[in-house]
Amino acid sequence: MTSADGLEQWRDGTGEVAEGEPPMLMKNHPKLRLWVVRAEDVVHAPECGGFADTLNGKEIKHSNLTGARPAHCGGQLVFVENDAVALDGGSGRYGPRSKEEMTAVARAFKNSGYGVWSYGWDDENAWPFRIGSRLPQWVK
């Protein structure tokens, strides 16, 4: 997948964003994007439409973002406001392996200049909560 297919490099936000009301997002939100932390950068792309329409399942997978190469972590996100995102660690292949990793990734997005709503980690089931499964928490 290339930039011509909708793959975008992560760009830093403008800085501090005031906390608002938690976004009420559904798992099939039309602006849902996949993100992945690769060895050299962070990239994201729309999950559906465009390039995804050329695929059998009509959705891209995280491996489309990496060329099936190793990556550190991945999930889904939605840009919810100016410089604010809601994100999860919902990648079957590259998802976070612990609550600490999910927290670190959410803080890294915050440190890149965005307000972050994180869906967090399900301690009972030992996997990340997904967009649409509950209200996200503001990352401080």
Give the topology, please.
Elements: E1 8-9, E2 33-37, E3 42-46, H1 62-66, E4 73-81, E5 84-87, H2 99-111, E6 115-118, E7 121-122, E8 127-128, E9 137-138
Parallel strand pairs: 5-6
Antiparallel strand pairs: 1-3, 2-3, 2-4, 4-5, 6-9, 7-8
- The helix/strand series, from N terminus to C terminus, equals EEEHEEHEEEE
Distance between the termini: 34 Å
Given as residue ranges, the uncertain stretches (5+ residues, pLDDT < 50) are: none
**Strand-pairing-aware structural class:** alpha+beta
Number of DSSP helical runs: 2
Strand order of the largest sheet: 1-3-2-4-5-6-9
Question: What is the molecular shape?
Answer: globular
Helix content: 10-25%
Radius of gyration: 14 Å
Q: What is the makeup of the main sheet?
A: 7 strands, mixed
Overall pLDDT confidence: 94
Compute the number of structural domains.
1
Describe this structure as you would to a colleague.
The chain has 140 residues and is α+β, with helices and mostly antiparallel strands. It has one domain (3-10, 24-138). The protein is 13% helix and 25% strand. The chain contains 2 helices and 9 strands; from the N terminus they run E-E-E-H-E-E-H-E-E-E-E. The protein has helices spanning 62-66, 99-111; strands at 8-9, 33-37, 42-46, 73-81, 84-87, 115-118, 121-122, 127-128, 137-138. It has a 7-stranded mixed sheet with strand order 1-3-2-4-5-6-9. It is globular. Residues 1-24 are annotated as: Disordered.
